[in-house]
UniProtKB/TrEMBL annotation:
Family membership: Belongs to the glutamate--cysteine ligase type 2 family. YbdK subfamily.
A GO molecular-function annotation: ATP binding
Protein origin, superkingdom: Bacteria
EC number assigned by the record: 6.3.2.2
Keywords: ATP-binding, Ligase, Nucleotide-binding
Function: ATP-dependent carboxylate-amine ligase which exhibits weak glutamate--cysteine ligase activity.
Pfam families documented for this protein: GCS2 (PF04107)
PANTHER family, A to Z: GLUTAMATE--CYSTEINE LIGASE 2-RELATED (PTHR36510:SF1)
Protein name: Putative glutamate--cysteine ligase 2
GO biological process: modified amino acid biosynthetic process
Length: 400
């Protein structure tokens, strides 16, 4: 959802970074986590109790913070912006650990799952806006218990931001495949690696953008969408990637929340590489790839269906190809930017690790196959949320 009603100061230092020179764009991450019963594994409406006890850092730049989201069965972990991947990585791990401790304080656990494997009956947070959304959108809002990853990357201006949106749009479906972590819905195997993507697409304002060319065209589109009354306000403009309403950033919103923190680190590194590459292309006068929006919807669907275990649509040709080849094409596309930012080696290592171990969706299905119990799937995911090898390896990593 758009949880900024409750998190307006969480990344305020983006406002103070000024122009980001090539290779040092700041970036930050918002991760939505499920709150689950430690015994039964089902999602529980404990966000209010958790946040009542949670002590927020005095300054937004002090570290990760927790905020409310649309449903009481979830919270959001928000990092401050960073200029290095190592610094962001440390705060991703720290933020999940803060969430774990806060959840334990009210007798629940946090689990990085794109959807609840077990049946759930969500309870919206008691805000007037959310009540209006439930009234307006019916079952779409009432069932909307999904957890995603939102990645903010700084841009110098709206002009640069729209140029970036125009040039990253065809690569975004690959992020769905890399992050896929939601194979279950209401206790059933959906056959999708990222069923969250299917649930999220029910919102009338969700999905890919056309090539717009100018900030005026972007803002006019947003204005026209709100003017229809179908989108209640600008917070409901749920493009796969958009200009942030609060910060001088491009916000990429298409990915599932990742079960393992290192996969969130990987996504963040890739997204910053995409933004930097796109900005360089724009400055060099390179036109966006003219992929029709209808084909981007098909590419996102295919990534949602198969994740990394099947074919994806090539971001340039829109023809099917092996997932490994498409991922390699993505890394090749952003390689120079990754090198210049010092991220190439880490991104390649994390990509190899993900391709070897599989996505969260693969792990969930393997646990169910081994145990036959969705409660075990949730328990394993909660352990992975804060118990990955990266936690011990990176504890104490200095910020930037």
């Amino acid at each position: 959802m758009d949880g900024h009603e409750t998190a307006d100061t969480a990344m305020d230092t983006f406002r103070n970074n000024g122009t980001a020179p090539p290779g040092s764009r700041t970036f930050g991450v918002e991760e939505e986590l499920l709150l689950v019963d430690p015994g039964r594994g089902d999602a529980v409406p404990m966000a209010g109790a958790l946040l009542d006890l949670y002590v927020r850092p005095f300054e937004s730049s002090a570290g990760p913070v927790l905020t409310a989201e649309f449903q009481q069965e979830m919270i959001e972990v928000v990092t401050p912006p960073h200029s290095t991947l190592a610094g962001l990585q440390a705060d991703i791990v720290a933020g999940r650990d803060i969430a774990r401790q806060a959840a334990e304080d009210v007798g629940v656990r946090v689990a990085a799952l794109g959807t609840s494997p077990l049946p759930s009956d969500p309870h919206p947070v008691r805000l007037r806006r959310f009540a209006a959304m439930v009234e307006e959108y019916g079952l779409t809002a009432r069932e909307q218990l999904t957890c995603g990853t939102h990645i903010h990357v700084s841009v110098d201006s709206d002009e640069e931001g729209v140029a970036v949106l125009d040039r990253i749009r065809n690569w975004l479906p690959v992020l769905v495949a890399l992050s896929a972590n939601s194979p279950f819905w209401h206790g059933e195997d959906t056959g999708y690696a990222s069923y969250r993507s299917q649930v999220w697409s029910r919102w009338p304002s969700a999905g890919p953008l056309d090539i717009l060319g100018t900030p005026d065209a972007y803002h006019q589109l947003v204005h026209d969408m709100v003017s229809t009354g179908v989108a209640m306000d600008e917070g409901m403009i749920y493009f796969d990637a958009r200009l942030s309403r609060h910060y001088p950033t491009v916000e990429v919103r298409i990915a599932d929340v990742c079960m393992m923190p290192e996969n969130t680190v990987l996504l963040a590194g890739i997204v910053r590489g995409l933004v930097e590459t796109a900005a360089r292309e724009w400055k060099a006068g390179t036109d966006p790839a003219p992929v029709p929006t209808a084909l981007l919807r098909l590419a996102a669907w295919k990534a949602s269906r198969w994740g990394l275990r099947g074919e994806l649509l090539d971001p340039v040709t829109s023809r099917p190809g092996p997932a490994l080849g498409v991922v390699n094409s993505l890394l090749h596309h952003i390689r120079t930017a990754l090198e210049d930012m010092g991220d190439l080696q880490r991104v390649e290592e994390l990509t190899d690790q993900l391709l070897h171990t599989g996505t969260g969706a693969v792990r969930q299905l393997e646990v169910l196959h081994r145990t036959g119990d969705l409660e075990d799937v949730v328990d394993d995911a909660a352990n992975c949320t804060v118990g990955s090898e990266i936690q011990g390896a990176q504890r104490g990593t200095p910020g930037d």
